[in-house]
Write a structure and sequence with these properties.
- The chain is of the alpha+beta class and 384 residues long.
- Helix content is 34%, strand content 7%.
- It has a four-stranded mixed β-sheet with strand order 1-3-4-2.
- Strand 3 and strand 4 form a beta hairpin.
- Helix 4 (123-134) packs across helix 5 (149-157).
- The longest helix is centred in the middle third of the chain and has 18 residues, at 216-233.
Length: 384
């Protein structure tokens, strides 16, 4: 194999090289462990300085090009002297790869002259770039009529796509990228794969935006346990998870983190809790709800201090958000008890939990609903 440059993600800083078995977040049970181990041995990919690989993290357009061009060439392309796209400055680490790909006709960018290097890359985009960069011969017969059909069908027939990929617009993760390249480079056609004809049209790409040292599944399950224990004490049936509500709850938690404070106010509104504005916000995200005796949805939010630099911050964050839950519960019997009422409302059946953090705070949103009556596109991946 030609000399391969290190696969750097997110920055050009030094990363700790290790085999997949040495990554703290890649065990032998990981679906992509063999691919990650092989690509690591070849020097194609490296982990982060904290010993992780982050197999579930999405890959952006610049990162994707860098690894593929490094696989295909002996040396890194020369730095460009003039910008090839308006958002690709000549002194950025990815400029040589992006501009080389443009010169080779692998990428063309957008009509406004941009490339969007930080934008995540989906299945059909990845298929075209992989095939063109690595010079994969395309099928002579193509059945689809879309621009991506030759690339999708060619790679599909080579059984490149892991079974976890099911949608055309689904973002490709670091683990899936490793698997696809491992299969293609070593002709692993004996692997279970998603056939090109089995891909569904669209799904909702969704990220929980939480650090890798936090087990969000454990935190969400614990929150649900607290909630359902409270409901059981009131003789009420348990809430059930709804992934779409978790999506909307996370969207709102992340939005508040990005603006640095937490409240219910949607953009352009002044009332603290504008029911109609929030209802319209849900509708814009594809959700409408059954009206059950005047109940449709409600939203609880929480905010508080949080700081952790441990290898595993799950327990620390659980202890932090317990203050929010205890505050909700403390409203029982009070004249003002919206959070308590949401937890014990008999007409609400489903719940979604959104949580994110920054350097010193956590931002939490809980969405409760009667029943979703709309038919939103499915989520591309499992939430946790």
């Amino acid at each position: 194999m030609k000399k391969i440059l290190a696969f750097l993600l997110l920055s050009l800083g030094l990363l700790t090289a290790s085999l997949a078995s040495a990554y703290t977040d890649v065990t032998d049970e990981n679906d992509y462990a063999d691919a990650i181990a092989w690509l690591t041995e070849q020097g194609v990919i490296q982990g982060y300085a904290d010993g992780t690989y982050a197999p579930d993290a999405p890959v952006n357009r610049a990162e994707f090009l860098k690894i593929l061009i490094a696989l295909h060439t002996d040396e890194a392309p020369a730095a460009p002297t003039t910008p090839c796209f308006t958002d690709v400055a000549t002194d950025t680490w990815f400029a040589p790869y992006v501009c080389s790909a443009k010169t080779s006709g692998i990428v063309s960018g957008y009509s406004d002259g941009t490339f969007a290097p930080a934008q995540t890359i989906n299945v059909v985009e990845a298929s075209k770039i992989i095939a063109l960069t690595l010079g994969t011969p395309l099928n002579a017969t193509v059945y689809g009529t879309q621009w991506y059909s030759p690339y999708l069908e060619t790679l599909g027939d080579l059984k490149v796509y892991p079974t976890e990929l099911n949608y055309l617009n689904e973002n490709v993760t670091r683990g899936q990228l490793a698997e696809m390249l491992w299969r293609l480079e070593l002709a692993k056609t004996d692997q279970s794969a998603t056939a090109w004809s089995a891909f569904e049209p669209d799904c909702i790409n969704f990220s929980t935006d939480i650090p890798a040292n936090i087990d969000l599944e454990t935190i969400a399950d614990t929150w649900l346990t607290w909630t359902n224990q409270t409901r059981a004490g009131q003789g009420l049936p348990a809430y059930t998870w709804n992934d779409q509500l978790t999506r909307t709850a996370t969207v709102w938690a992340v939005y508040n983190k990005d603006r640095g404070y937490m409240n219910h106010k949607r953009p352009g509104t002044t009332a603290y809790y504008d029911y109609t504005a929030i209802e319209n916000w849900f509708e814009n995200l594809g959700l409408t709800f059954k009206n059950d005796g005047g109940y449709t949805y409600t939203e609880n939010i929480g905010y508080g201090p949080y700081y952790c630099e441990e290898d595993d911050c799950t327990t620390d964050l659980l202890e932090a958000i317990r203050y929010t839950y205890d505050y909700f519960i403390s409203e029982q019997g009070s004249s003002y008890s919206p959070h308590w009422n949401s937890i014990v409302a008999s007409r609400f059946k489903e719940i979604g939990f959104g949580l994110t953090v920054d350097d010193d705070s956590y931002y939490l949103t809980v969405h409760y609903a009667t029943e979703i009556t709309s038919d939103p596109a499915p989520l591309c991946n499992d939430l946790y």
